[in-house]
């Protein structure tokens, strides 16, 4: 009986720990690009900075402050919903096509990202 109780406490502790790590956004996640690059990072990190650390420099004139709209990429999986801060930079078609501003995206789970050379020149603010 005591052994079962100890086992139950251990299992519940592990479940609670996993849940807390997921909620705090610090779980390990993986960022994969459609051209075959892949690397791990911590949940809660910034996509723009993580790509830069991995040697993938998206265009930027604002230094990741969310105002130049040059850090565009398509997040094909795991990006969640577009934020209100990003929305003015994209048409409805682009939102449906999963375009995002990398500097405004907090990585919560593993992502599949498409980086395009043509990212420059898009994303003129319409508001
Ligand atoms: S780096 Fe300028 S908007 Fe993202």
Description:
There is one protein chain. By secondary structure, this protein is α+β, with helices and mostly antiparallel strands. It has a single domain (26-119), classed as Roll (Ubiquitin-like (UB roll)), CATH 3.10.20. It has helices at residues 2-23, 47-53, 92-96, and strands spanning 28-33, 38-42, 72-77, 99-101, 111-114. The N and C termini lie far apart (66 Å). FE2/S2 (inorganic) cluster is lined by residues 48, 60, 62, 64, 66-71, 101, 103. FE2/S2 (inorganic) cluster binds at residues 48, 60, 62, 64, 66-71, 101, 103.
Offer a few descriptive terms:
127 residues; alpha+beta; Ubiquitin-like (UB roll); 5 strands; binds FE2/S2 (inorganic) cluster
**Strands ordered across the widest β-sheet:** 2-1-5-3-4
Number of helices: 3
Proportion of strand residues: 15-25%
What would the average pLDDT be, to the nearest integer? 86
Give me the oligomer status: single chain
Radius of gyration: 18 Å
Bound molecules: FE2/S2 (inorganic) cluster
CATH third-level topology: Ubiquitin-like (UB roll)
CATH superfamily: Beta-grasp domain
Task: Kindly report how far apart the N and C termini lie.
Answer: 66 Å
Condensed summary:
The chain is 27% helix and 19% strand. The chain is α+β, with helices and mostly antiparallel strands.
How would you summarize the topology of this molecule?
Blueprint: H1 2-23, E1 28-33, E2 38-42, H2 47-53, E3 72-77, H3 92-96, E4 99-101, E5 111-114
Parallel strand pairs: 1-5
Antiparallel strand pairs: 1-2, 3-4, 3-5
The structure holds FE2/S2 (inorganic) cluster.
FE2/S2 (inorganic) cluster is lined by residues 48, 60, 62, 64, 66-71, 101, 103.
């Amino acid at each position: 009986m005591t052994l079962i109780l100890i086992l139950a406490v251990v299992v519940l502790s592990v479940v609670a720990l996993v849940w807390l790590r997921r909620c705090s956004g610090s779980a390990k996640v993986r960022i994969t690009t459609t051209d075959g690059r892949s690397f791990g990072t911590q949940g809660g990190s910034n996509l723009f900075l993580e790509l830069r650390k991995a040697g993938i420099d998206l265009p930027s004139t604002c230094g990741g402050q969310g105002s130049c709209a040059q850090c565009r990429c398509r997040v094909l999986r795991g990006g969640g919903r577009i934020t209100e801060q990003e929305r003015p930079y994209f048409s409805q078609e682009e939102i449906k096509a999963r375009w995002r501003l990398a500097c405004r995206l907090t990585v919560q789970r593993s992502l599949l990202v498409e980086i395009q050379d043509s990212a420059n020149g898009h994303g003129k603010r319409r508001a």
